[in-house]
Specification:
The complex is a heterodimer of chains A (276) and B (283). Chain A has 276 residues and is an all-alpha fold. In chain A, 75% of the residues lie in helices and 0% in strands. Chain A is globular, with a radius of gyration of 20 Å. The two termini of chain A are 36 Å apart. In chain A, 43% of the residues are buried. Chain B has 283 residues and is of the alpha/beta class. In chain B, 40% of the residues lie in helices and 22% in strands. In chain B, the strands form 2 sheets. A 6-stranded mixed sheet of chain B has the order 6-7-8-3-9-10, with helices on both faces. Chain B is globular, with a radius of gyration of 18 Å. Classes of the chains: A mainly alpha (276), B alpha/beta (283). At the A-B interface, helix 1, helix 2 and helix 7 of A face helix 3, helix 4 and helix 11 of B.
């Protein structure tokens, strides 16, 4: 046995469970860290993405708050809207995640990830976390903007931590959904069309910008099946000082995590086929 | 063909014999609908060997390589790579091989060092050894001075060398390279060849390389398989292959002899697009 051969098994994961988990984390974070470093090299992307939620808050929120056409109970409309806009901007960032997956496939970078021994689910989760990172940068912008507009934000550390977690889960959910769509449609042109078609119903069939109680019954049913509704519901409790939740935070997290886990399992099966 | 020592290799150490083949295929076949891209290919690549797959566009070289690197499941037949089955033990195969695809696999938006770091983590290079191995690999590929530059500012040859470096950090038994010198100028091509040979000298890595440059195959490879329409038509050293065709024959003559007058037989729009895209990216 030569020295080279003797060193080969070191790259095989340790059979102990703790070792396996540690290896899995290293591989997952390798993917997320690569995205983080790319954002650091080129932060312009984050700056441009911040424009849209600010416009929603200032223009749409500014006008609708004057109209007082939507009954949001004792909560001022802007306070009601801010968590919805945060969830929306996280959704918009995440839903185009699939485009970058197709782009990476076309370039060849995807082949490099798939040729590595990293479990496919670790690759999918790493990518999903990177989408969460982008979502968090949106949160900073929206918190700043909302505070400037007088929204009664909660700054309790435990609320902030839970908001971060909720954004991470929400981003993972929608970015993985987007990845699955990318695996199905396979080209950027087709994805662009479908991305638009998907975003709007998810956004409008939710409680993001108006209360569910105002919806017609069929739309209420759709909103109840829409994961975005649960993200917004949780955010409304956590972001505001007098925030309330319709379903309860445990319910929100459970629903989001369950759907995310399901989508990751599906994506881990479909992702490798993108290069075939 | 003997391979008895390879079959019961589910244990980590068993495949690690210095004489066991690094690639062994048995009637490996891949169909796409009614088209047979690779037809009952049986191959054997030894340790430390630089093995070339040559053939016209669309002959099936890339399909074969995708199956050997576990990127594409075979329709029938089987293949052992580094002693592991490419279907049942795909993850194990992947941790014992390196793969440099034809397309760009280094990330242009990261620095050379960052690309290496990503690979070190994905291939689970022990943390304590990461920095030193990355430094050594960059040094071997003559990229130390460029380690902190974004890869999109690299030349085509530098990118290929980085891709080789990042695919060999985990000291694979065999490195697969798909058309590694497409789009490079002659200087860049010679540097890549030189570094591939160094890799074998220093780490004993076997190399399986597809190419349609005959001079590259003659210069670089110990043995060559000529593939035409999905079938392996001839295997041998460059000298053996040319001797079969006639005195003073070149590999070009071998190529023409095997493939007939059908140089343009295969390779649809997709192939041409891919080749040109990667040529552009690396130039």
């Amino acid at each position: 046995m030569s020295g080279r051969h003797a060193s080969a098994p070191e790259s095989i994961p340790s059979p102990r469970l703790a070792g396996l988990v540690a290896d899995y984390l290293v591989q997952t974070l390798a993917v997320a860290d690569a995205e983080f470093r790319k954002l650091r090299h080129d932060p312009m992307e984050l700056a441009t993405r911040a424009v849209q939620p600010v416009l929603w808050l200032v223009l749409f929120g500014g006008v609708m708050a004057q109209v007082r056409g939507l009954s949001t109970g004792s909560t001022p409309y802007l306070d009601f809207l801010a968590p919805g806009i945060l969830a929306q901007s996280v959704l918009f960032v995440a839903i185009f995640h699939g485009i970058s997956a197709i782009w990476e496939r076309d370039l060849g970078v995807l082949q490099r990830y798939l040729a590595s021994p990293a479990p496919r689910s670790a690759l999918v989760i790493g990518k999903a976390l990177s989408s969460g990172l982008r979502g968090l940068s949106q949160a900073i912008v929206i918190y700043t903007c909302a505070a400037a507009m007088g929204v009664d934000l909660s700054i309790r550390p435990q609320d902030i931590v839970l908001v971060v977690l909720l954004i991470a889960v929400g981003s993972s959910l929608f970015s993985t959904f987007s990845l699955i769509i990318a695996c199905i449609v396979k080209t950027r042109e087709r994805f662009m069309g479908i991305g638009q078609v998907l975003t709007m119903p998810v956004f409008f069939a939710s409680n993001a910008i108006y209360p569910i109680e105002l919806m017609p019954r069929w739309l209420k049913a759709a909103a109840a099946l829409n994961p975005l509704t649960y993200e917004v519901d949780g955010l409304r409790l956590l972001m505001l000082r007098n925030g309330t939740s319709t379903f309860g935070l445990a319910h929100d997290f459970t629903a989001l995590l369950a759907v995310t886990a399901l989508l990751i399992a599906i994506a881990a099966r479909m992702y490798p086929r993108m290069t075939q | 063909m003997q391979h008895s020592g390879m079959l019961d290799s589910s244990d980590d150490g068993v495949h690690a014999s210095a004489t066991a083949p690094v690639v062994e295929t048995f009637d490996l076949t891949r169909k796409f609908g009614s088209i047979t891209a690779i037809d009952r290919a049986s191959l054997l690549v030894g340790p430390r060997e630089i093995f070339g797959l040559i053939g016209p566009n669309g002959a099936g070289k890339s399909t074969l390589m995708k199956m050997l690197t576990t990127m594409l499941p075979p329709t029938s037949g089987r293949a052992l790579v580094a002693g592991f089955d490419v279907v049942r033990e795909a993850a194990r195969v992947r941790s014992h091989i390196g793969y440099v695809p034809q397309l760009l696999s280094a990330d242009g938006e990261l620095t050379g060092y960052e690309n290496m770091l990503v690979s070190a983590r994905l291939y689970l290079v022990p943390r304590a050894e990461r920095e030193q191995r990355i430094a050594a690999a960059l040094d071997m590929m003559a990229l130390t001075d460029q380690r902190d530059r974004l890869v999109r500012t690299y030349s085509g040859g530098m990118i290929r060398r980085l891709e080789i470096a990042q695919s060999t950090l985990h000291r694979p038994l065999v490195l697969f390279m798909d058309e590694p010198t497409v789009g490079l100028d002659p200087g860049g091509r010679h540097t890549v060849w030189q570094h591939v040979r160094r890799l074998r000298e220093h780490m004993g890595t076997a190399v399986v390389v597809t190419t349609h440059y005959m001079d590259e195959a003659a210069e670089l490879c110990d043995r060559i398989a000529v593939i035409h329409r999905g079938r392996i038509e001839a295997v041998g050293t460059p000298d053996e292959l040319t001797a079969k065709v006639g005195p003073a024959a070149t590999l070009d003559d071998v190529f023409m002899h095997v493939t007939g007058a059908e140089i343009e037989a295969g390779g649809g729009y997709r192939d041409v697009r891919q080749t040109r895209l990667s040529a552009r990216k690396h130039s």
